[in-house]
Structure formats: C-alpha cells, structure tokens
Design brief:
The protein has 368 residues and is α+β, with helices and mostly antiparallel strands. 35% of the residues lie in helices and 33% in strands. The model has no long low-confidence stretch (mean pLDDT 81).
C-alpha cells in the first residue's frame, strides 16, 4: 500500500497515528493525533517528537525508543505526554519499525490512544477501594463476604473484638458453625427467602444471637445483601453489629412498661389515651368501677361523648389546645356520664403525646 492510500485511511482512524524518521522527526500525523495534543497537523510536521513531552517525560520516552530499535516494536505502553498548553496527560502507545526493503530501518509508526477518562475512572476506583478498605478495617462492625455455599471469603479485623477469633480462623468456615442450631433455623429461612426473591431483593436486616469463641452467645444485628454474578446468586455480603446494649435497654424498657401497666391496672383513676381523631385507643380497667363500662365498651369511642353536655365545648377546647398547641391541662372539674345515665364528678388532667395523641388522667373522684 503506497503512502497516499495509507494517509487517506489514517484520516478516518479513531486513534492518533504518526510516522517519524529514525531520528525522531515527524513526517506525518493524522488529525486525531494532532488534536490530542492541541495542534493542527501542519504544526507538527518537521518537528522532533520531544515537543510532545516534558524533559522529565523524555527519560521514559528515550528508554522506550531504545527498546523499539532493539525489538522493532512495542505495545500497550502507558506514557505521559505534554499538551500544547503545557498540561500533561496519559496516553496508551503502540509502536513498530517499518523496515526498508534493504532491511535498514527507514522510519517508525506510532499509534496513541487517549486514556484520560480511563485513568480518572481508575483513580476513582482506587480511591473508592482505599476508602472501602479503611472503613472495613476500622469499623466496629464486622464487614464480611460469603460464597454461594455460605462459606466466609472475607472478614474485617473487628471480628476479633466481637467474637474472639482472628479473621483467618473464620475464613473458609460455614456460617452455620457460628450459631446454635435453633438460632440458625431462623437465619436459614431469611437467606433462602432472599435467594428465591433475588430479582427483587434489596437487603435484609434482622437480629439474632451468635456464638463467641468461648461458647457464650451475644446478640447481633445482621445486614446483608446478595452478590449476583451474571444475574445469578453468587454469595452474600454485609455487616454484623453487636447489640448487647440495645437488648439490655429493651429489657429495661419492657420491665418499666410492665410495671407501668401494673400501676395503671391497680390505680383508682381512669387513665385514657386518644388517637389523632380523639377516639379512645386505651382506657384503664378502673373505668368499669367508676362508670360501669367495660374497656371494650369505650375503646374506639370519642371521649367527649361521655362528658356532661354543658361542658363539652370547654373540654373540647382543652383537648384541641393540648393536641395542637402542645399545652397540658390540670385539675379540670367536670362530670362524666355513667352507664346507668347518672353522672359522676371528677378532676381531669391531660398532656400531649407526640402532638397528635392526648393522654389524660382522672386524678381524683370528687363525689358520686
């Protein structure tokens, strides 16, 4: 193929092409090559290729040039280049010596590919991996990965602080070995469901108990998601957090709640709570003794229905202020209608809960 036809073809190539003499003088460049450096083709003709590099970059370029003379070609070499503006940027290079029919090197041809976007992606990926590594190795939670058979393939260093094992002691072990059998039954159900629903599954979060190295159990919260490869289930990844403090606080709260329920049950006052629509959602058992109604008779009813009619407007205003303006009220004397139609005199107090719920206590029985 003669030089004319080659140059015509080179105009349409999606990458840069240049032809140089063996002493580095540029004799041809296509537009793609020139524009990568910020030049027009005619600006580079007759110039030495060193115009495309900084002095520091020429050290690597000269090494590559010597290799080209020795091996007659090189491929996939990543080198930094200099733009016309002075900006430096990376490109991927391929070179080959074009030999004269008499076997004497006559010139060489170089192809260059712009890899700025690739390098940015590579840098971003490296940065992401560094951040991921830092977080996984410094997080108090255990970061882990498992294969499709639920064998651990990765564990962060926090495993030791939580369970007393070094990561290498768990690597290759099956998940079920770190649970009591009765505990793992529930975990297995969650995992099986996730695998069945892999097309729509996002992640799961649940609490369970796991075994430490000394054989004791600790409560943990597990967050996990599926690893998919070619659209198929390939494993699991996620984190495990110890929640001993949370479980203890929950126990204390439950104990407090149980005591409160007992106090309410034994109280000689009616304690009631309404929803945002002023309907009774809870009322204490004392209502049966005071008004003759059972709890079921009143749950779901509007509390104002049981008040003396002439005081309804005032009491409704108290409830509205309590609910919407976050204002409590105390010692409001009123009359409540008994189941037999008579009225009992009471003193009522109330306080807002979450702005939309009103709780009130009939603190004392004034008279019957």
């Amino acid at each position: 193929m003669d030089s004319f036809s080659f140059k015509e073809i080179a105009k349409y190539l999606p990458y840069g092409v240049t032809i140089m003499s063996m002493d580095g003088i540029i004799s041809f460049v296509n537009e793609r090559f020139a524009h990568l450096y910020g030049y027009e083709p005619e600006e580079l003709l007759g110039k030495h290729f060193s115009v495309l590099h900084t002095e520091e970059q020429m050290k690597s370029v000269n090494e590559l040039y010597r290799e080209l003379l020795q091996k007659k070609e090189y491929s996939s070499r990543e080198l930094w280049h200099k733009h016309k503006t002075g900006r430096i940027f990376p490109m991927l290079m391929f070179g080959k010596v074009i030999e004269h029919p008499a076997a004497n090197p006559a010139y060489f041809i170089t192809s260059v590919f712009d890899i700025k976007k690739y390098k940015k992606t590579e840098a971003d990926l490296t940065s992401y991996r560094e951040i991921e590594s830092f977080l996984s190795q410094n997080s108090p939670d255990i970061i882990w990965k498992m294969d499709s058979k639920l064998r651990f393939t990765y564990l962060s260093n926090s495993l030791y602080d939580m369970f007393g094992y070094k990561p290498e002691e768990w690597l290759g072990t099956y998940l079920w070995k770190h649970f009591k059998k009765i505990r793992f039954v529930g975990v297995a159900k969650i995992i099986k469901q996730a695998i069945r629903e892999y097309k729509t599954f996002t992640y799961t979060r649940f609490e369970t108990w796991m075994l430490k190295k000394d054989g004791t159990e600790i409560p943990v919260e597990i967050v996990g998601k599926l690893i998919l490869k070619d659209g198929k289930y390939a494993g699991l990844q996620g984190s495990t957090r110890e929640i001993t403090d949370r479980v203890e606080q929950r126990k204390e709260l439950q104990t407090t709640y149980d005591r409160l329920k007992q106090l309410i049950r034994l109280s000689n006052s009616i304690i009631w709570e309404t929803n945002e629509f002023n309907r009774i959602k809870y009322i204490s058992p004392f209502v049966a003794k005071l008004l003759g109604y059972s709890q079921k008779d009143i749950i779901g009813k509007i509390w104002c229905e049981f008040h003396y009619e002439e005081e309804l407007e005032l009491f409704s205003r108290l409830l509205t202020n309590c609910k919407h303006d976050n204002k409590s009220f105390t010692d409001f004397h009123t009359k409540l209608r008994n189941k037999d139609g008579s009225y009992v005199y009471v003193s009522s107090s109330g306080l807002p809960l979450l702005k939309t719920i009103v709780s009130a206590v009939l603190e004392e029985l004034i008279s019957t």
